[in-house]
Each structure stands twice: as C-alpha cells, then as structure tokens.
Amino acid sequence: MNPPTPAVLVENLSYSYPDGSHALRGVSFSVAPDEKVGLVGANGAGKSTLLLNLNGVLAGAGRIEIFGTRVGKGTLREVRKKVGLVFQNPDDQLFLSTLYGDVAFGPRNMGLSESDVKERTMRSLATLGLAAHASKSSYHLSLGQKKRAAAATVLSMGAPILALDEPTGGLDPKSRRELVHALQIIGGAQIVATHDFGLVKELCGRVIILLDGTVAAEGEPEILLNDTALLERCSLA
C-alpha cells in the first residue's frame, strides 16, 4: 500500500530577499495530514519566510507541494484554499465592523450560500470559544481573543492546513491556555512557527529547528528542546 500523500512537501527550498540576503537555504521536510509540527529558530532563522512560501505569498526556488499540488502561479487559488495562514499580528486579518463579518468574509468569497456561511462562521467561532462575541468589533477584544479570532477566519474556510506565526506571542497565561486548547482540538495539519517551547511540547509531535535558513535538527520536541548544546548552537539558549 502506498503511503498517504503528505499535506505539505518541501524540497530544497531556498529564498533570497531583494537585497540579496538569504532567508532559506535548501530546506526540505514533509508534514502528514493531521500532523502538528513546531517550527523554531532564533529571530532571522527563516520561520516566517518559510510560512509565506507555503501558500505562494513569497516564491522561492525549490519545490513545494500541498496535497500533491505544486505551488506555483497557476495553482495559487487552489493552494490558498488548503493552506490557511494565521499572521503574527491578528489586526492584519481582522478589519470588518464585527467579528462575525471577519470570520464570514472568507466563506462568502468562496461563493457559499448564506446558510452555509452562517454555519461555518458560527462553528468556527464556537470552536475557538468566541461565539458569544460574534457581534462585537475586534477592536473590543483582548489580544488573546484577537489571536483566536484570526485563527477562526482561516478555520471557517475549511483549510486542511493551518500555518500559524507566533500564535501565543504576547499572551497572558489564561489567554495562552485558551488558545493552546483550541489548537489541540482543531483537526488537520498544523505548522506552528514559535519561540514558545512549551507550546511545541504541548501541541506538536515533531519539531523542526532552523538555523540561518537551514534545517539544523528535526525530531521529538521533548528530546531536541532539552538538548542544551543544540539550543546554544542555534542561539535558542
């Protein structure tokens, strides 16, 4: 029996910014459907750049496949339905007058009926613990609620892959627990770029450590994130 098609396949991905600086150098890895993978590295290691390459916001050299579909100019619409990107700053994804409107925006633009839009929107809000806030403006939400709301805007579109950039950054302990719990119960594949080692240990079965745009190590979080020599080499300790 053939193995299942990976949710994400990255082969020899490199990316350089217009000023010539190298952000990624020959990165390769895969993520299985329903697998949660942590992506850690010091500032400038290439985490955010890697996430932006997954759905074609940036386009590097190499190969990326999403459920077998190669990411490229002709497949961006299809790929972006499958890879939901949750930005570090939730205000980048929340811009309408109500939270309901923000979460409904994606399904509406998919051409779904209003009844389907409502069902997806309320289900996503409920999953993230935000159903009671549907009529509020995002401006009246806490940072923790905004972080969960940003995830809800992607979840409502039915993307089978979530790519999250620093989802727990800046959160107080209660808000962090609420977000981690929500991510634990959401199905599908998740790639989580973070400095929060605790999040990786709680959520992910595997971690990829980046160093200067390359994969320095890959394996079990409990092993790699307790390897002091490795963490020091990667400027993470």
Briefly summarize what is shown.
With 237 residues, the chain is α/β, with parallel strands linked by helices. It has nine helices and ten strands. The protein has a single domain (8-233), classed as Rossmann fold, CATH 3.40.50.300.
Mean pLDDT reading: 93
One letter per element, helices H and strands E, the order comes to EEEHEEHEHHHEHEHEEHH
Unreliable stretches: none
Total helices: the number is 9
Percent of residues in beta strands?
Answer: 15-25%
Shape: globular
Supply Rg. Answer: 18 Å
**Order of strands in the sheet with the most strands?**
6-7-8-3-9-10
CATH architecture grouping: 3-Layer(aba) Sandwich
Give me the CATH superfamily. P-loop containing nucleotide triphosphate hydrolases
Largest sheet: 6 strands, mixed
DSSP E strands, number:
10
CATH class: Alpha Beta
The tally of domains stands at 1
What name does the CATH topology carry?
Rossmann fold
Structural class: alpha/beta
Distance between the termini: 43 Å
Helical residue percent band: 25-40%
Question: How would you describe the overall organization of this protein?
Answer:
The chain is of the alpha/beta class. It has one domain (8-233): Rossmann fold. Helix content is 35%, strand content 24%. It is built from 9 helices and 10 strands. It has a 6-stranded mixed sheet, with helices on both faces. Strands 2-1-4-5 form a 4-stranded antiparallel sheet, with helices on one face. Strand 1 and strand 2 form a beta hairpin. The longest helix has 14 residues, at 114-127.
